[in-house]
C-alpha cells in the first residue's frame, strides 16, 4: 500500500516486521525475515492467497498532525493538471520532498450534473515546520459544486501501472473521456480516473527490495478507474467498458 507517508518511509508492506497467519491446513505460523521468510515476502504482495492473517507487527515512525488539503478545478483545466502532474512525478532534483505526500489527482465525470471536475489532494507530513507542497503550476481552484450522496450504489474499480510518460498520461485521460461518453446515460454514474505517483526514492525506502523495484531510476504512475452507478441493468455495460479501457492502456 501507498500512503502520504510513503515518500518518507516507503510502501506500507515494507514496514511490516512479522505476520501471524493461519494456513489452509489450520496451522498457525509466524512469518518474518528470520522465520518462514518466503511466506513473509509473499504476503507483502500476495493479497489473501496464502492464508488468514490474524495479526501483524509493524515498525512505527513519529508523526503528529499533518497538513492536508484539496484543489478543486473544472474539467477545462485537465491538460494543465496533467502537465503539472507529469512534471512533478519526474522527481527532478529540488522538486522531490520526503514530507510532501501526493499529488493524488482525480478526474471525475458526474452524470447527474453532466459535468467534469478535477480534485488534487496534497499533504505535508512533517511533524513541525513550514508547509512545502510541491505541485500546483499556478493553477487556481474554482468553485466546487456540492451534490447529495446517494445510498445503495454499485461500484467497481480497476487499476494498472504505467510509466510517467506524458503521451501515455494523455492517452490514459483520453481513454477516461471515451469511458465517460460510453457510460454517460448510466443513471447516477460517477466515473473517476485517479493518478498517483510512484517515485524511485519511495521504492527504495523500508526493507530491502521486496517488490524488485529498488533499481528503478524512472518514476511510475498508478492508474485507478472507479465507477459508481445505480441500476443492475447497467452492470454489463459498466464492466465491459471499464475492462476494455484497462486493456487499451495495458497494450
Structure description:
The protein is α+β, with helices and mostly antiparallel strands and 251 residues long. The chain is built from six helices and nine strands, in the order H-E-E-H-E-E-H-E-E-E-H-E-H-E-H. Helix 4 (166-182) runs antiparallel to helix 6. The longest helix is centred in the C-terminal third of the chain and has 17 residues, at 166-182. It is globular and about 55 Å long.
Topology, pairings included?
Elements: H1 6-9, E1 16-22, E2 28-32, H2 37-42, E3 52-58, E4 67-74, H3 78-89, E5 100-110, E6 115-124, E7 154-163, H4 166-182, E8 190-198, H5 200-203, E9 220-229, H6 235-250
Antiparallel strand pairs: 1-2, 1-3, 4-6, 5-6, 5-8, 7-9, 8-9
Helix pairs in contact: 4-6
Please outline what is shown here:
It contains 6 helices and 9 strands. It has helices spanning 6-9, 37-42, 78-89, 166-182, 200-203, 235-250; strands at residues 16-22, 28-32, 52-58, 67-74, 100-110, 115-124, 154-163, 190-198, 220-229.
- Sheet-strand content, in percent, reads 25-35%
- Tell me the structural class: alpha+beta
Radius of gyration: 20 Å
Question: What's the β-strand tally?
Answer: 9
Residue windows where pLDDT falls under 50 for at least 5 positions? 131-150
State the helical fraction: 10-25%
Q: What pattern of helices and strands is seen along the backbone? A: HEEHEEHEEEHEHEH
